[in-house]
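Q: For a teaching session next week I want to show students how multiple molecules come together into a single three-dimensional assembly. I've collected the sequence lines for a complex. Could you give me the predicted structure tokens for the whole thing so I can convert them for display?
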Amino acid sequence: MTFLRWLRSLVLHRRLERDMREEMRQHLDRATERLMARGFSREEARRAAFQEFGNVHYLQEEARDVRGARWLGALSPDAKLALRMLVKNPLLSIVGGLGMAVAICIAIGFFTWMTFYYAHPPIADGDRVVTAAYIRADTEEATLYDYLVWRDEVTTLEELSAYRRARVVAEAQAGGSNSANLASITASGLRLAGVPPLIGRPLLDGDERAGAAPVVVLGFDEWQQLFAGAPSAVGAELLLDGRPHAVVGVMPEGFRFPANDGLWIPLVTEASIEGPDKSPWAVVFGRLAPGVDAEAAVAELSAIAGRHAIDDARTGAGFRLMVLPFIRHLLDVQQYPPWLVWLVQLFAALILALVAVNVAVLVYARTALRSGEITVRTALGASRARIVSQLFLEALALSLAAAALGLAMAEIGFRQMTSLVDLQAATPYWLFGSLPAETVLYAIGLAGFAAFIVGVLPALQATGRHLQSTLRTMGGGTGVRLGKTWTTLICVQVAVAVGVLPAVLGVAWNYTPPPQVNFPASELLTIRVQPPADGSPQPERDYARLQAELLSRVDALPGVVGVSYASSIPMRGEGARVELDVADATSMPATPFVATHLVDPEYFDLLGVPLLAGRPLNAGDAAEGASAAIVSRSFVEQLVGDGNALGRRFRESPGLGSEIAPDAPWFEIVGVVEDMLTDPRPPGTPATFHGAPLGAERFSLVVRTRGIAPASLTGPVQALADQVGLGAVGVTPMDAIYRGDGGELRLLLVMVGVVMLAVLLLSAAGITAMMSLAVTRRQREIGVRTALGATRGQIIASIFRRSVAQLVAGIGVGTVVAVLLDRVAQGEMLRGEAVPLVSVVCTIMLLSGLIATAAPARRALRLQAMELLRDE
Amino acid sequence: MSRSNTPLLPGTLELVVLQLLQAEATNGYDLSLRIQAITKDVLNVNAGSLYPALYRLEKRGLIGGRWQETASGRRAKAYSVTNAGRKQLADERESWERFAGALRAILSVT
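A: Of course. Below is the structure for the complete assembly, covering every listed component.
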């Protein structure tokens, strides 16, 4: 109750104050009237009433004490002063605020990611909803066959369900048409969600039977878009990739379970299963029964799987059955243990601490200049705590403003990211849209933490010592000495900037300009195909036959003008180290790497990527043991140099992390093609292309269309992949991938730009502040030297000498740090461009440092010797 | 006996305020007049003591204040005793009567 009353007085502070003053005014008015009625004049009556009442202000203070609100009254002017100081020091406010905002933005970015780790779907007992799958490294497998086997016997999981996702084109008879995320889901999946439909009915078990009439349940948005929200939608017909389905229900607004889905059709399980080897993949999920944990569920599911002989092959191949929180299959987070997540979070908070220390340098410099004011306030009776709390409030005002800006930046970044990942159906609908509420609380906590470093530490130092001597020397200088600590901090700051910025600049350099694709992305559909997902090894010829069948079936679809295949979809390659037969030591980076692709000989023809030199690959180059290869223009420019690339030989490592084996085969360059984007590596990454026959485990299709939207083939291609026994795991239009990559690059560039600007501004402002303080402290010395005949040049030289010494020390250490970091990262950070990148950053830092010193130097020159000495 | 400036015993102001407000809800000014009138000017509680006492009782939840219009058409904050205040008053009265009885017994000793 006491706390509630305190809270009330805090919230109602202004109203209680107004009431109190009004009440006392009424009292005085009535007393005045009473006395006037006794014959006093108005003035006399008023005076007498005041006498009778006592000291009003004193009484009001007493009343505030009673209410416990006196401190609020005292706080108010402090808060106002804090805001005034923010406006009065625009440089400090902008630079310090921006620096902290960027750091807070980074920290809350990590924090938000961490909250995802623990997030669960917003349905009843959502925290107990789990998936069951066989997992090896980052490969996750479960099939409809597994689901059927488990469903009939499992007791540890309730409402065991399965679903598959696809993107389909939905067309209503009324004319509405849209592409939407579709979940083929068992009726139990919607029962588990526990959300009743807005109108109509949900999916029922009967809908899953083979031969049942095809039905669909609409999401709220899809209902609005396709049927303009008309209730008559229920019962109407909807074409999904051209196949008619009867609409039986509409789900309420905001419901997009299980991932980000807007259409639900029954998963016709029985009809899909021919046996464990032929079963399509599916996500299997359910709710842990009361009192059951994941371990018990794993034990039971393993036992059931063992009885049906679907366990051994997988465990033999290194797969392990796992029951994991539902979120894990939607976000790629299962490989991170919780302690690592917390460690990353701690690291992010440390970045903020580093920036806050930087800002503290600035604040300290300013606090030192205000030491006269602090001393006078102390002499007038202000306690040390009072002054420290005032300085803390000033810092808090700044850090709260920074937190607000950081949150705004994070929100913009988050929305940007959401719009990018929305392209994929796998985005959990309950995570994206806006930053979670706990993130806002965390940002406020960070602001307090930063305010402590920025405000309290310099305040304790400024109020702790020298007060007496400051009082004595007031008017002649700042009194607060410029400690070695702060000078060292400036050097460290420059060193950190020089150490880290080249890598940041390198990223920006490598990813600029934004990608331009030189193939008709808007006409292409990409399909990633994975082998039958039962974990058992398959004879290679089986793959070849199945893949060839899929290729010919897809080629026969209407609107398709050509089909090709590769080990990965365009713009996605496998990283590898590369070695040339005769390395050109002058032009080659120490550890060159390339993006390597296995491709169909027809690949470049289909994509329309021009051959610049040599010959294309032919069928013979795709045979086992063939040695011909094609390389990209960047490969030639960066690794071969000016000489003729054709006929040169190279060999590769199996992956980025492995060395090139001594017996690795040599490949001969027979042709050169124009660069294609090879994300996730930067544009302009050297690429190699080897001919490959069908039959490899990794298999991606590229379909070129004409006259139809590539997305409209998603459903038919998925169906064909199922029919031939190959599960298509990612069917995505190429321009969606291209747009997504472009968006990510732009976001990355904006982030890099903001971080660089913040670091540069902080360093420059730190140097300005410290130099300014140094000039103020040396006023008398400068005065004496001027009086003794020192020239302007000598005065300027003495000012700049100190600044240059700090800058050179910082730059020296920073250069060593940059080179060491690059060594540790095996050349990945600066990618062979250490000299230009480090030079650019050193020049920028040196120039900004010198410019930052110019203003204090000009002030020193304006100091009049006689005035300074007279002050003495 | 002097008719004015008789100080209140420490701790009795709250008892006085609670008792009078239980009898009739009223504002601070009228309350001070009532104390003077009832005690025939023996007790003169000035505003400097009265208002802090009112705020203290209000903060402890023993009385509650509400703005309302008086008979003369003014707005005034009228205080009334809460349930907790009534219980507190009963306790304090009992304690006071015990104290006064004991004091009377001592003063009757001749």
